[in-house]
Amino acid sequence: MFRPNILLARAIFPEAVAKLRQHFDVEENPEDAEHGFEALSARLKGKQGLLCTAGEPITAALLDAHPQLKAVCLMTVGYNNVDVPACTARGVLATNAPGVLTETTADLGFALMMATARRMSEAERFLRSGQWTKWRYDLLTGSDVHGATLGILGMGRIGQAIARRGAFGFGMKVIYHNRSRLPESDETPLGARYVDKATLLRESDHLVLVLPYSASSRHAIGAAELAQMKPTATLTNVARGGIVDDAALAVALRERRIAAAGLDVFEGEPAVHPALLELPNVVLLPHIGSATEATRRAMVGCAVDNLVAALTGGVPPTPVNPEVLPLRLG
């Protein structure tokens, strides 16, 4: 009986590896080494399946080098590293892990926005460095979250979850911009108002970015957009690096054109633009939006379920290009 070979591009939970071994011959990556094109291609030789993150380059050239590859299953919701049309043209299934990280990422996004508004990171550094010696009326004053205008750019699952937290938990006025307006049945429960991008930038007290990365969304927030924001506004990015022009943001923060920023993602991460590291009015996190154990287990579990179904004749739960099903192995 044919037993597929699979590659785990990164380290995952041992229990998930054990489940995969019930169905496949598995090549692990317990050292969690990152792979560029050449290293990934070398390890994909003879593999029918790949379980990976959003960091591995799944290009047409890689697929052409490995025509036996039939399934690429990501443990992340984002898949801009995958050339989906190239996969479809070659009969390769691509899957992602939507839904399982929505609420956890929304928690982090809202917490990051609050930390940014209330200058929490700056305040902790102030205390730890021994500068706190007395109370003063203007000591580390930030901006209110309750009752403020929450602007959301990208009103998908996570954007709507953040909107619920703002509207119901903090009495915020919610405005949003999206590629397409939500149905009224989705807008009304949130009290959300659809506006054009210029209005979103102009009216938001706290602007949160939750849009997917694509060529068209690269530098969706750059110098021109930052110039349209209130000088008292904050910007929070929990979407993808590259949506914000980090160099332009550093200038705007340094010159106080906006009050502060909270960033969980960066262009070219894990590298961070050095100018951002020098600024007091930015909260910096190492891409931990989905980082709870329960959620990370759910993400890996979704990828495992997709891979098992794809290569054993089942129906994968979350295909990106379902038109390639069923897969032909052997």
Structural notes for this entry:
With 330 residues, the protein is α/β, with parallel strands linked by helices. It folds into 2 domains: 5-100 and 293-324, Rossmann fold (3-Layer(aba) Sandwich), CATH 3.40.50; 102-284, NAD(P)-binding Rossmann-like Domain (Rossmann fold). It is 35% helix and 14% strand. The protein has 13 helices and 12 strands. It has helices at residues 14-21, 37-43, 60-65, 84-89, 102-117, 120-128, 157-170, 184-190, 197-203, 223-227, 246-254, 274-277, 293-311; strands at residues 5-8, 25-27, 49-52, 71-74, 93-95, 149-153, 173-177, 192-194, 206-209, 234-237, 260-263, 282-284. The protein has a 7-stranded parallel beta sheet with strand order 8-7-6-9-10-11-12, sandwiched between helices. It has a 5-stranded parallel beta sheet with strand order 2-1-3-4-5. Strand 4 (71-74), helix 4 and strand 5 (93-95) form a beta-alpha-beta unit. Helix 5 (102-117) packs across helix 7 (157-170). The protein starts with a strand and ends in a 19-residue tail after the last helix. The mean pLDDT is 96.
